[in-house]
User: Fold this.
Amino acid sequence: MKPRHYLHFGEFSRAEYEYLLERTRWIKAQFKQYKPYHPLADRTLAMIFEKQSTRTRLSFEAGMHQLGGSAIFLSTRDTQLGRGEPVEDMAQVVSRMVDIVMIRTFEQDILVRFASVSRVPVINGLSNEYHPCQVMGDIFTFSEHRGAITGKTVAWIGDSNNVCNSWMKAAAIFDFKLNVSTPPGYEVEAERAGNYGKQYVEYFADPMDAARGADLVTTDVWTSMGFEAENAERLRDFSDWQVDADMMKLAGANALFMHCLPAHRGEEVSAEVIDGPQSVVWDEAENRLHTQKALMEFLLLGRIE
Ligand code: CP
Ligand code: NVA
Assistant:
């Protein structure tokens, strides 16, 4: 039987996500009560990193350990992948030795190629194109603070990057509205933008208009990993796309602020906002752990009824 993978946010149906969110609540409660839960005893997770990480590595490694299994960290620097071994050969070997794989890489195609020959589930831990685990954690975090995200409005301010692309997919699955505002020249690619109706994704030239009345305002770094050569140019081009107190005021007192982190205070977000009362960034970071435990359990064991 072919394994199921999680390469982008569109891999699961709404019903499957509802199950995963429910499961996350239960798994998180066990953790908070110091109750051991080891459904993945003797299972091994391989984590392959071609880019740096704090949260993703920590949450997957700690999460696998807490579920009774173990995790192995591999990076391009110290594996044969860094010396040109074909991705498909690596996938054949890795997937005969471990039970599940998480990959953080550049092109989405690397994940697709790995998964095409993998005997075990493959999870996208961030690519240039997508960061589905982040948005799953964010939606869980929203639900903890404000209930279901369906019918709500989320404002994405800044770069049309991997996290933004995952939010767009999520809007169509969870049926909420995503207001997107990017600087000129950094718009969502036309091909991708064309996939969503205006009831799911709407574009705004002015970030203030995107934020007005939103239930959640979220942003990310102006320069994602792999785009460092464009940093000076981006600092200039994005200067009006900072989430600050004036923007949060337009969203309203009940609006939440999220950021996947790491953040640059004074660039995409002011210190006042990220360290202020509307910010839930630490819950958001913590929930990566709980949602990904539910994800690994689901990919390996299916539904636990
Ligand atoms: N948000 C996130 O994925 O963080 P890391 O890059 O630290 O893993
Ligand atoms: N968009 C950012 C997310 C980091 C977690 C990046 O790709 O660098």
The longest helix spans residues 281-301. The CA atoms of residues 15 and 173 lie 10 Å apart. The chain has two domains: 9-131+288-300, 134-284.
